[in-house]
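User: Here's a chain of 229 residues. Predict its fold as tokens.
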Amino acid sequence: MTENLSIPRHVGFIMDGNGRWAKQKNKPRNFGHKKGAENVEKVVSACFKLGVEYISLYAFSTENWARPEQEVNAIMDLLQKFLVKYKKTLLTNEIRLIVSGDRTRLNDALIEKILDVEKETSHFSKVLNIAINYGAKQEILSAVNAILKDGLESVTETQFEDYLYTKDIPPIDLVVRTSGEQRISNFFLWQSAYAEFYFTDVLWPDFNEQEVEKAIKSYSLRNRRFGKL
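Assistant: Prediction complete.
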């Protein structure tokens, strides 16, 4: 299937639909989040097998704090358990973990686990970037304030990117959003400036290896001109 296909170097996933998936099965929303977390490893593995080098996952946005406290706590617990469980896979498959987002609202145990896994995998070339307490507007404002703090009056695009969470990551080539919603929801606005978009009605827990291939095939058929003819 992958023969003669153009493989995106960097794919970003807006992992949507966990709650609706659970509701369809008469299960609580947290059950859907658990299944969604379990699906991450399969999707990441499928992407890397196809030749993708960088993957960004939208795990928890700055706006998600407005959800019920019980759901927020369950998601944070899932994120910590995921990092504990997935660390071995990252090391075995030589995948670097980067976590993008404002860590000031995260609990100490989660921050400690993030720092541990980031350090242990920092020398690998394949990258899994997980956005936790992330918002693109917040990221850009944070970068601007850091530039002002450094006393700079002007910067180039390249210099500006050095102040972003993703300073070590190339731009996103393909953004995939599951569950039928067709919006970007504050997801890596700067990094997605020239990304292609792929929307699917498939809910995230059901987004399997075959769905990954469909998204890549759709991307491969696009004519990316970057403003040129």
